[in-house]
């Protein structure tokens, strides 16, 4: 489950970073027009993606315990900030709906790790 959460982070974060940094009609619709805040968010997404990719390499190299420690820090952080988007933006946003799905995946991962 940990690898699935890290893989989901990579598959979601990496394709978003460059379009968020540039002008993109799809990104403008989802995240608003280009702004400092959107570029900062792209940097946060990129960081989540890189940490997740590093963690996948740790798992592949036999350092699953280290990857689990990363998951126990990164995933709760993501769950909290993604849940905060619900009252901040509202459920009509596709980004918020995606955040809810990712949060549920990460919650299931954390539950599976602690059982």
Short synopsis of the structure:
This protein is an all-alpha fold and about 120 residues long.
Topology overview:
Layout lengths: L1 H20 L3 H7 L4 H25 L3 H26 L4 H21 L1
Structural overview:
There is one protein chain. This protein is an all-alpha fold. The chain is 86% helix and 0% strand. Helix 3 (36-60) packs antiparallel against helix 4 and helix 4 (64-89) runs antiparallel to helix 5. The longest helix is centred in the middle third of the chain and has 26 residues, at 64-89. The mean pLDDT is 96.
Helix-strand string: HHHHH
β-strand amount: under 5%
Helix content: over 70%
- Low-pLDDT stretches are none
Helix count, DSSP H or I runs of 4 or more residues: 5
Mean pLDDT reading: 96
Number of strands: 0
Shape: globular
Q: Mind telling me the C-alpha Rg? A: 15 Å
Largest sheet: none
User: Structural class of the helices, strands and pairings?
Assistant: mainly alpha
Termini, distance in Å?
12 Å
Task: For this entry, give a set of tags.
mainly alpha
